[in-house]
Task: structure prediction
Amino acid sequence: MDKHYLAPLLAPQSVVVFAGPADDAGAGTQARAVRDALRATRFSGTMQFLDIGTSGTLADLAQTRADLAIIALPPAEIAAALEVAGRIRCRAALVVSSGIGAEQASALRKIAHQAGLHLLGPNSLGLQRPSLQLNASAAGPLARSGPLALAAQSGALTASMLDWARQNAVGFSSVVSLGPHTCVDIAQVLDFFADDAATHSIIVHLEGILNARHFMSALRSASHAKPVVVLKAGRKPAGNEAAHTHSASIVGSDEVFDAALRRAGAVRVRSFVELFSAAKCLASRYRPVGKRLAIVSNGGGPGVLAADWVNEIGLQLGKLSPASQQALGPQVPPLASLTDLIDLSEDAQPAHYRAAVDAASKDPGIDGVLAIFSPKTGCDPADVARALAAIPKPTSKPLLSCWMGDASVGAAREVLAEASIPSFRTPEAAVGAFGNIATFHQNQQLLQQTPPPLSQLAKPDVEGARLLIESVLAERRTVLTEMESKALLSSFHIPITRTLLAHSANEAMMIATQLGFPVALKIDSPDIAHKSDVEGVALNIVNAAGARDTYLSMMERVARLAPGARINGVTVQQMARARRGREIYVGLVTDDPFGPVIVFGAGGTMIELLDDRAMELPPLNQFLARRLIERSRVAETLGEWRGAAAADTQALEHVLLRVSEMVCELPELREMDINPIIVDESGCVAVDARIVVAHAPSPIGGRGSDYQHLAILPYPARYQREWPLREGGICTVRPVHPADAQMLQALVQQLSPESRWFRFVSRFHELPPAMLARFTLIDYDREMALVAVVRERAAAPDGTALEKERIVAVSRYFTNPDQSSCEFSLVVADDYKGQGLGSRLLESIIDVARDKGLAEIVGLVLSNNAEMLKLVRRLGFAVRPFPEDPDFRLVTHAL
Result:
């Protein structure tokens, strides 16, 4: 808890610089730029310039100590400088260079690893920490200090962003340029920003990611604590020419990235100007809002432009209620219009703007307010701005402004900036900024969802499904037949049409007669991806003769159109009897690097033309399934529609939950189409399915434990237990959940000062919001927190008895950067000490760490915390002095 492990790199207190001799006229451009940048500012720590060629003996160098080594040397000299940095026990290194290939970068990574250095680079443009007056970059002058943190994978874009920020008075807590082949990656930098008290919001430029699990883990953790805005380059679709299913052929990787960002609680923007405006708005930390934006203007034209853009980007125009209109009417000019836009007319004065904004802010049907001002004779733009600036802070709802024009409104914009009211030059930009606020809070709802791998529905036959897939792979096949695909769906209780395979015309006739007419016949072949392409589907066959003749003609047609295809026969199934059913499809694609993605949209034979697809990363719960359906265009047809009753959307949600279970439990799944699913008021049924499998992929997270093929680890419900307490009663021990935040805060607030000091080594009375967020929404792959929950009786306000849940103990571990050890902590409520909770929780967290394949669990215990030292000794921990601080003991336990 004291310092993040990247603090020596990104917030160093001491620096050594390897940039060649000071008088070296032949030094490279970057070396000169770094030397000039470092000397142009007065670094608040200690800085020493070293020349690896003339710095004396190793004995001389041994007297040098530094957190960070900054290296700006020709490629041939970087390795030697890294080795020297390791020998003088630097803890981190920054290599400012360009053009270093993967092979040399790998060699530098090995040197840094052996020396215990966190290495940023080798192709980094550098970093800036304005609060420390540290400009260790070749990106130009030091940025001004501010609350934004910037991480970018492009050096050129980093320099452009800093240049834009200088002209627009935007300040930074940190600026980090990564570049290709870097050792410290974007996920680690995000993790530092989430922990950094100087950072209030985070902006990120991405070109690509290598490890989806690490990236999603860091991004989810960061965006739970602070607003994160992402600019992603490379929006080209990644069509798969070899796709076996519709889903795989129509879903591009950029769309999957959008789905991943949405699930991580972050916001995506399209330009770097929009990047800063979004970050500026989100940094205000408005409470969760909806999509209803009220527009206050002094002219119809600008207001209509804003309203048009509201509709264009999927927001809603916020309108005053009749009661609000009636109350506001006497306070605005006679020509004002209040029904849709709040058009105050050309006679609007500062007091009119203030009254209109106040009315809109108080109206429950409005989520945010945009004030637009067009220069008018007889009204000073700055006076109107001062009227808005005088509104007490913080405002209950987002307030944005757009002062149009240029020459006459400059002073007004300065007033708005000083009042921290986001200001924009065009109505479209302002509406787009509000859209980012709305998107952020919608995505935060998705972020809070941490579903288990299996839903609460009836337990599926996972073992049977695995046996089926193993038999297919044993035959060296990857595409399941329709019969096999439907059997797999049945094992997860997805409703299917009854299907039988006919090997001859007579069999087709007899099966059809037994099933009952009308029936559908479909060709069954592992080599035909889409049956309709070879006329391999016949519907609404109404008698036995028709079934026989259709079988013969279908076999003849397919043999002609697909002469090389293997034909198993023809499947016969009863036609789905939905009177006004809608055709839906549910699919699965496997993305590189995010792994499996669930797709939902309009189905049928025209699926590619309809181009309706909404995506979500598994695992799903009912909330996520419902939101996935709502994002599709076909959702508009699921209600009452042209005489058809509303479709059973709950049945569709259950299908999505079942597909999520399949994805979680069967890592061999690669592609899947369930198309069409016929849904009406009585339920839904899967008419056709096609599934592609392969051997289980390499783990996304790098280790081979359960669910490592997923980018988001499911909630580990398997660790939930119930324990009897010594003094009676039961406590439930389970992994922490985001909804536990208030209970965890209450536990900390109720601790005695001594207990709080022993756990946090701090005098705070409660957890800061960022820390509370990081403690409750966690990546169960790299950390674990087990909470002990009891139910206690309390009196409700009306005097009746009420049962409330209470967290009375927490144990947690966090995996160290070496990925082989972890650091633990433990706290027990004062009134529950002596009941054995501490020892049992610590034993449980040790078991989880062992289950994750970690080799050692360590902790720091205050020397005067006798109870904890007694407990860890009893559980077999080794206790020894902590060299860096005599007030602590280092306790370790091999796993």
Notes: Residues 65 and 298 are 63 Å apart (CA to CA). Residues 238-242 have pLDDT under 50 and may be disordered.
